[in-house]
Write a structure and sequence with these properties.
It comes from Ignelater luminosus. Residues 123-318 form the CHK kinase-like domain. The structure is a single chain. The protein is α+β, with helices and mostly antiparallel strands. The chain has one domain: Alpha-Beta Complex (Aminoglycoside 3'-phosphotransferase, Chain: A, domain 2). The chain is built from 17 helices and ten strands. The chain has helices at 2-14, 66-71, 74-98, 144-167, 169-175, 182-190, 192-206, 213-223, 226-235, 282-292, 295-298, 301-319, 323-326, 329-339, 341-354, 364-370, 385-401, and strands at residues 18-22, 36-46, 52-62, 111-115, 122-126, 134-135, 242-243, 253-257, 265-270, 278-279. The strands form three sheets. It has a five-stranded antiparallel sheet. The longest helix has 25 residues, at 74-98. It is globular.
Length: 405
């Protein structure tokens, strides 16, 4: 940890903190967390004028369990996230700055330092919680204001990829050179691919779909060659692609608020870019929408589709590109129909995880020691099963009503 300690002293110096003291260094423990361990660390000292001050940081350390690292490709996932913070996000920032955007690329936390060629890999971030940002309660679905705010932010995020490819294709191609599809790697190697297949198949009986013959028949048809359908979704990348967040559930976004009741978000930051890949922006949108939107919001799909596309179009114009050329609305609608079922697959698993009590969640490292996949880690019963059934039934009905399956 000597390198980290030296790095922290350098960070303190750059931030104008003298006589800095580290409250503690994080311990690297095998088997904690999911694919990483996150610790809060405070640098305390004085300003140059002698006033006491503090800088709060988050240190994200890759999992050290060797079997877990191999099966989930931890090194590859961390290298991808480090690339985002070291190369891609700075390029996005400069692109927006050069085009006169007043507050360039306010999408992600500040990353002070990365350690890519160490084992475990490490990233050091600003602690957004100290800056007034709050985590969402994962068990709750978001209200309309949050859903709209997130869709608008994703519109701006995706617009940068489209505009950069449009205006400076050589720079963009260099930026994404050797870009790896981490979703394929992670899903296939870890066994999560078949976990998703199992989850969507179980819905047929779990939701008692026989009670509605139309929905039952449509869902049965969807399950035909379901493995090929998921394979297509995690692999396809047509000409209208962007750099995706690709891990778009509520735990990976933090909110700052206009009001004390935390109903009206004013700012959003996206975190965790380990699964990033190239693909249609729809993959991010359906991932988020079918995980975080309420049953009531599903009924207003057209409203939310328009919210996203208007944000994307507005930011594209601000960056100097024409949305009708780089991502026409007709293509956007076509992609919804083509890729929407990605949200159905993910929601069948992620709603189960989101509704789990803390004592129900299974430790991945423990599971992997018994088996060579993480599939068993998601096969537990949850006490909130009725809420899970209610959410998933609304989603399945939505897919049938909109002819997405």
């Amino acid at each position: 940890m000597n390198n980290i300690q030296e790095c922290l002293m350098e960070i303190a110096k750059k931030e104008g903190i003298v006589n800095a003291v580290i409250n503690h260094l994080p311990e690297i423990e095998e088997g904690q967390g999911y694919l990483s361990n996150i610790s809060v660390l405070n640098l305390q000292g004085q300003t140059e004028t002698g006033e006491n001050c503090k800088l709060s940081l988050l240190i994200k350390i890759a999992a050290t369990n060797e079997k877990l690292r191999h099966i989930t490709a931890v090194d590859q996932l961390f290298h991808s996230e480090i690339r985002m913070y070291e190369s891609i996000f700075p390029a996005f920032y400069e692109f927006e700055k050069q085009r006169g955007i007043a507050n360039p690329f306010p999408m992600v936390p500040k990353c002070y330092k990365t350690f890519e060629n160490t084992k475990p890999e490490i990233l050091i971030f600003e602690n957004l919680n100290e800056n007034g940002y709050h985590n969402w309660n994962r068990k709750l679905q978001m209200n309309s204001e949050h859903v709209k705010a997130v869709l608008k932010k994703y519109g701006k995020f995706h617009a940068v990829s489209f505009a950069m490819r449009d205006q400076n294709p050589e720079q963009f191609q260099q930026l994404i050179k050797n870009f790896v599809n981490n979703s394929v790697t992670m899903f296939k190697r870890s066994g999560q691919f078949y976990t998703l297949i199992i989850k969507v198949k179980k819905l047929l009986k779990l939701l008692n779909l026989q009670a509605d013959s139309k929905i039952f028949k449509k869902y049965q048809e969807f399950l035909n060659e379901v493995e090929k359908k998921l394979e297509f979704l995690i692999s396809d990348c047509d000409d209208f692609n962007v750099i995706l967040h690709a891990d778009c559930w509520s735990n990976n976004m933090l909110f700052k608020y206009k009001d004390t009741e935390h109903l009206l978000p004013s700012e959003i930051r996206f975190i965790d870019f380990q699964l990033t890949r190239l693909g249609s922006p729809i993959f991010d949108i359906v991932h988020f929408f079918y995980i975080c939107a309420s049953k009531e919001d599903l009924k207003n799909l057209l409203v939310y589709q328009q919210v996203y596309y208007e944000s994307l179009s507005e930011h594209l114009r601000a960056l100097g590109s024409n949305p009708d050329s780089v991502f026409p609305f007709a293509v956007y609608e076509e992609h919804w129909k083509k890729y929407a079922t990605f949200g159905l697959f993910l929601s069948s698993l992620e709603h189960h995880t989101m509704l789990s009590e803390d004592n129900e969640i299974v430790n991945l490292a423990t599971v992997i020691e018994k088996d060579d996949s993480i599939a068993e880690a998601f096969e537990y019963e949850i006490v909130n099963i009725n809420e899970y059934k209610s959410r998933m039934k609304a989603i399945v009905e939505h897919f049938v009503d909109n002819n997405f399956i």
